[in-house]
Amino acid sequence: MKIRISYVITLAFIALFTYFYRQDGAIATSVVYTAIQFALPLALAAMVGVMCERTGIVNIGIEGTMLLSAFTAFFVGAILKDTVKGLVAGVLTGVIVGLLLALMAVSWKMDQIIAGVIINILAAGLTSFLYRQNYSIPSTLSPIDLPIIGTWPIIGPILSFHGPITYFGIVFIIGLWIALYRTPWGLRSRAVGEHPSSADTAGVSVTKLR
Known about the structure:
The chain is mostly helical. It contains ten helices and no strands. The chain has helices spanning about 1-25, 25-55, 60-80, 85-105, 110-130, 155-160, 165-180, 185-195, 195-200, 205-210. The model has no long low-confidence stretch (mean pLDDT about 85).
């Protein structure tokens, strides 16, 4: 049933885009191009939520994690005048916050909702306290031109000239779906979330995997 609904939504989107493309192709292409850029952070956050939910963790601290990571990336990039170093710092911050959530929710057996609220409040407080308006990043990552795909009609302008983070995010989302549903690791992860006692009996370490 879910697959059928997904097909219906996809076909409806294609039909709607085709209609508006015939009315004004440039505007329709621009809207979808911009939508991909704005939707990617939400899609990545959703994948994090799915991954946590599948292993039995209720992660409501995703917003706080994104806020702290984005702030760290901006702050380090502004101080060091290097966008790539700022990006790496943001990723490491996300890893540290994830470890903090794991420590509270898994190791200390704290209520998962409370642990997520703590992260959100901590992120909002720290970023508000440390933010300074006189910092700015001198440059951004250059968009990538896809020579072959960029020449395709209709979808070429939509998929080409995005930043490297956009392409990495799309590949990451597809890769995570494959990992969750087509690999032994994904099977163990879903077993830990749905039947932790059965997974433990089968020799899977529930605590380590979470």
